[in-house]
Amino acid sequence: MKIEEIMVKMIRQAGGNHDDISHFLKVHSFAHTIGLLEGLDARTQYTLEAAAIVHDIACPLCRVKYGNTDGRNQEIESEPLLREFFKDTDIDKDIIERVIFLVTHHHTYTGVDGIDWQILLESDFLVNGHESEKYRNRVQEFRKNIFKTKAGLLLLDKMFGNDM
């Protein structure tokens, strides 16, 4: 399944929610860009981009079930939604499992075990920092404690330099 096909499927799944669609498209764009700038191999790049597209798959459910999209609730609720989303696709099982892992940890900032997870965290923060004052107020903290990639740090500094 091509990245573009995952994107179209996720747009359909979003049910016309423009904010959700815009958010994951922006996260994907940053993940794509940072991954390329960091020189990821094709398989890791694909895994990262797939995870970036579906990283908030649980948001609609969380809004109904919990009344919010708290990151921890998203992590808890994502796995069955992702298994259904990727059922009957031609994506390698190990890639699907890594995407599930990344999505179920995309608000967990400790124990980062790979460049794909690191870039997903950075990409999501870059977008959340623009969309949410809660995150924007944490730019310095995230720059110091979370961001690690050269490309991610460059983007963070260029985007939020005036806030630092």
Question: Can you describe what's shown?
Answer:
This protein is mostly helical. It has one domain (3-163): Hypothetical protein af1432, CATH 1.10.3210.10. The protein is built from 10 helices and no strands. It has helices at 3-13, 18-37, 42-54, 59-66, 71-86, 93-103, 115-131, 133-136, 139-145, 150-160. The longest helix is centred in the first third of the chain and has 20 residues, at 18-37.
| Estimated radius of gyration | 15 Å
Proportion of residues in helical segments: over 70%
The CATH architecture name reads Orthogonal Bundle
Mean pLDDT: 94
Question: Any idea how many domains?
Answer: 1
CATH class value: Mainly Alpha
Q: What assembly state would you assign to the polypeptide chains in this entry?
A: single chain
**What is the fourth-level CATH superfamily?**
Hypothetical protein af1432
Low-confidence parts: none
Structural class: mainly alpha
Net shape: globular
**N-to-C series of helices and strands:** HHHHHHHHHH
